[in-house]
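Listing S7. Sequence submitted for prediction.
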Amino acid sequence: MENLLINNFKCFKDIHIPLNKLTVFTGANGNGKSTAIQAMLYLRHTIERCAVWNDVYTYQKLNSLKVGLNDGYCLVLGNSSQVLRQDSGEAIILLGICDKDRRFSIKYQVNQDDEISLTPIEVENDWESSKLFAREFYYLNAERLGPRIKQDIKFYGFPATGFQGELTAQLLGDASFNYSFKVDEKRRFWEESSPRLLQQVNAWLDFLMPGVSVSASYSVDTLSAQILLSNSLTRSFPVIAPNIGFGISYVLPILVTGLIAKEGCFMIVENPEAHLHPSAQSKIGQFLSTVANAGVRVIIETHSDYVINGIQISSAKREIQPENVIINFFNQAEISNQPDLKTISINEKGELSSWPKGFFDQTQVAFSELLKIRKG
């Protein structure tokens, strides 16, 4: 198992966060989930900015480049004083990843003039095979594009839906890509035999939202692509995306990314439950479990117990091996000077190893409060 290393970055003084084949970050607002995601994105951004490209990124030696705090991966971190932990004794941040035998980490100098960048000053790297160095790295921001009449066509270095899902229509509408790409057998929906991307997307979409399907068009003349949607109410006449709610537009990039992501590479998804009915939230947990079981390194940030329920169901059904799942619960610490981290595992019955205080217990809290009110 790997660990994400964070030292002196925002709310974290010194923490090792476990990463598995399927990793869930959850917890109350303002307790470190987003900071952990940002740390990994900034680490990847540093690699892309400062490493040498030769089939993979190689980062062994420093160069003179600084790394912007508000560039790439939708990062908006402010200035250097805002990312350095306030009680830090030195103006140094460390970010990295390690396992029991290998380590890759970067030390950054925090500039004293509140600059909007950090300066890498030391690299430790005995882990050249980490998928952090692969070309393919997939990230979907919590603020994805809602329904649009069309999306612009853009050049991409490798097939991906973009940080906000802005390339989803392009991928689905590009006939040459769709006919050449075949979805990995482990990720195919069990009732759809076709390996074609659009057919698999629609099979999974129907699983999440029965009766819903999509089609796409693509034009290099207008440099645009368009998603059309159908459900039981449109009577088989597809309509433009703004005429059907946000949920489909928000979940579609997750489905496409999960089906095209390269095995072994990282896929980070923030709030996969956004704009989804509870049933679909549970099923997107099952879908992401299937993707992780196929070898993609999936990291989810979620506030939804339904998503976790879906992962539990997948574990019990062996759609993913329970030992390949880990839930990191970030909570407000009573004693420590950084967020408290509880690591929860799942057994072969889909049961959680622990249920710490504050971990999706609001339903019980609300029922208890109602009971008190009813009793007067």
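Caption to Listing S7: primary sequence and predicted structure tokens for the chain studied. The chain has two domains: 1-136+261-376, 147-259. The chain has a mean pLDDT of 91.
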